[in-house]
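Render Diguanylate cyclase/phosphodiesterase in 3D.
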Amino acid sequence: MQPPSPSRSAAPPIGELIARRELCAVFQPIIDFADGAILGYEGLIRGPAGTTLETPFALFSQALAEGCAIELERAAARACIEAFAKLDFDGKLFLNFSAGAMRQLTDARDDTLALLRQRGVDPRRIVIELTEQSTILDVASFLPVIAALRTAGAQFALDDYGTANASMSLWVKLQPDVVKIDRFFIHDIASDPLKFEAVRAMQHFAHASGAQLVAEGIENEADLIVVRDMGIGCGQGYFFGRPRAQPARSVTDDARDALRAGHIAVFPEATRTVHSASSSGGMASAKMLVHAPALPRQATNNDVLELFNRLPDLHAVAVVEDDEPVALINRRSFMDRYALPYHRELFGKRPCLQFANASPVVIEKSMTVEQMAKLLASDDQRYLADGFVITDNGKYAGLGTGENLVRAVTEVRIEAARYANPLTFLPGNIPISSHIARLLGNDAGFYACYVDLNHFKPFNDQYGYWQGDEVLKLAAAVLADVCEPTRDFLGHVGGDDFLILFQSDDWRERALRAIHLFNEGVQRFYAPTDRLAGGIHGEDRRGNPTFFGFVTMAIGCVRVEPAGEPWLYNSQQIASVAALAKRRAKHEPSGFVLIDADESAALLRGQTDVAPVSAD
């Protein structure tokens, strides 16, 4: 049985607590990432210890029930100001207010700003936070409240941005000096690509509006490093300290070490599972869309002929009713029929649907690329001759041709593969180059390790691409398993080539473990007889009979030292030197080679020729 929880004594009404000055102020530090100094403290309130009103939630819930929430807010502010003045701390004091309390705060009868001066707290050190519970029905009438605060010297902040009432429209209208990002978006941001993208969008808007961002809810080093490397300047959370009546005057050694950590965060956007080729149907639709006029159902064949004569490049015309396609008329088919003797005289004034395809191929603009690819492989090949209709939410948008469909699907897949490999979903060449640029730009040392599979082509030739793909997936899984996702970047260059940008201190052990795990695991893809034989019989590149051992992993590594000047190296140079190390590793029994520091420095600086990257 669980031991009984300690009972809490009943608390008096909120008015009595205020009158007896039984509210306790606590403070949580807000850190400036640039120098690790404490920028200021958020002042929070607690009820009498050991009572049912000790927590702020219970305290303000009871105040709402008693109809004295604003009185509690004002009393809480006074308690925080008095306690902060007694502590004699440097930095800013952040105070929470609802919209209603802020209106009273700026009223001439309210003595809060006067209390600041009496207690020796300069109003210019105060930041008033608009709490996320606030609903402002008339924003225009609230603007003078913010202006009055600023006139008094205080700053204005939007709290818990991204939840409840803290919306972008409010940000635009109120133009806060500070925006505090709600902890929901910061917690686990190191591993959540959607949260990362949301915060990055906030960051772009903050830059445009001139607001300072504060990341709330930082509870671990990984989230801190991501937020720091994104360029957000300030943060608070349990990682730096919990709210206390006697908070620390400086950050802890652990927090300072984390802020000064030399490794650069691997942003989650670069490691997430990306289905770019599957989801970018809009891009493919845009590539193949032909803007073409349509004809109504009541149009005649003469109208069709006039349109084709006027637009000689138009391959077809859609027939629509209420903006929805009902048929498609192919130019060649129509003109061939109309060229027959007397057809114009006989059919010219008849409805155009007479020579139309009443069940054309229709592609919705939002259709995924994979759905388009299935259309290419289907038995229904009418689109090759007739073309097809493209709709937007069921409404006619334009036309497309079979040739344009093939080209659009191919181009989108190629472009998507540059960002994420379609087989392993690992980052492709563009994210790889981007992360190398970030590492160089931040003067971070790292190990670039080029990974290749020996004897993969003979295996693929004998067992087929399906089994070959499974081997590539195994390699990707093994490499991902040995990487520390917040420090080590794993990308898929293409085919059986991968690149790891290691920042982990034990990078060598991780690379060797990957080789061992892969070399053992890959044998399960061989037939029993080939496993007993130790490999397969095949032909080399010249057609000579050759025996190939098992597919094995080779990793060539190069140390990239902090250069001081990021322009000294580029991603192509680093990849080329790592590829050289990989070629050497393919001839080593261990499958592992590290180019020493002196040689790598010479190669990277161009003092020794490096062959271009190849996928041998």
